[in-house]
Write a structure and sequence with these properties.
Blueprint lengths: L6 H11 L8 E4 L2 H12 L7 E2 L4 E3 L6 E4 L2 H9 L3 E5 L3 E2 L5 E2 L2 E2 L7 E2 L6 H7 L2 E5 L19 H7 L1 H4 L4 E6 L2 E4 L8 E5 L5 H6 L19 H11 L4 H5 L3
Parallel strand pairs: 1-5, 5-10, 10-11
Antiparallel strand pairs: 2-3, 3-4, 6-7, 8-9, 11-12, 12-13
């Protein structure tokens, strides 16, 4: 905790910032902290964001306020048409942004079965995609993913213009830092460090060399108004603290 703000609350704000400037687009957050972040963004600097209840209803800043119906066919149209910005999780993620949520180990004889590929390829090739990693570690940030589910910048480029045309990996928010791909070779770098986190700690928790500038800034602090919304309105039961303990 720094100045009364918990690490989880910095993560919420960092996730909210992922949707800044997106306009009228469907935010698809996966995980407690991204969900709180998306609701915070809609209540503050991004009122035009669309949110769902996770199934078929478009909701307002509060889940109980239903604003419309989003049938499955319309949801798919948003995905394939680039009108959604998803924040997915990642069991493994490499420096190019290739994501694995399928299995750990050899695909034919995996050590651990996970979710499966699911919609990750379509997400990454058709609409903006960000990632949320609640435990930044070498188990997640690996030199090479065991199975490619979400498509990284190297593979999208190698597949040609048809794959790269709408490919847009925005950022990766973890419990230690915010990362993005704003480098000449489109590989991960640290955009900001959460207060109290050192560059060395992030490098130690990453399984490949990571670009961290000497003057890397701190992740921005939530405003008093944002803190009130997080603590009293959006997440009064503290789900954020269970996902990212202080």
């Amino acid at each position: 905790m720094t100045g009364g703000v918990t690490r989880a609350e910095y993560c919420v704000v960092a996730c909210a910032e992922a949707w800044r400037g997106d306009g009228e687009i469907l935010a698809a957050p996966m995980g407690a902290v991204p969900r709180i972040g998306a609701r915070l963004a809609k209540r503050t600097f991004a009122p035009e964001l669309m949110l769902t209840d996770g199934e078929a209803m478009i909701v307002g800043g509060d889940p109980e306020v239903v604003e419309g119906w989003l049938p499955y066919r319309a949801h798919l149209a948003l995905v394939t048409g680039g009108r959604r910005h998803v924040m997915m999780g990642a069991s493994q993620l490499d420096r190019h942004g290739n994501q694995n949520i399928s299995c750990i180990g050899d695909w034919k004889r995996p050590k651990r079965q996970l979710l499966g590929v699911r919609g990750a390829p379509v997400n990454t090739l058709n609409n903006p995609t960000s990632y949320w990693v609640p435990r930044h570690s070498r188990r997640v940030f690996v030199e090479r993913v065991d199975v490619v589910c979400g498509v990284g910048y190297d593979r999208a480029a190698a597949a040609g213009p048809g794959a790269a045309r709408f490919h847009d990996l925005r950022c990766v928010v973890t419990d230690l830092a915010v990362l993005d791909f704003a480098t000449p070779d489109r590989t991960l770098r640290v955009r900001s460090l959460h207060p109290g986190v050192t560059a060395e700690a992030v490098r130690e928790a990453t399984g490949f060399p990571l670009d961290i500038a000497d003057d890397v800034p701190s992740t921005r602090e939530p405003t008093p108004a944002e803190l009130r919304l997080i603590r009293e309105v959006i997440d009064p039961e503290g789900a954020r603290e269970r996902e990212v303990p202080s």
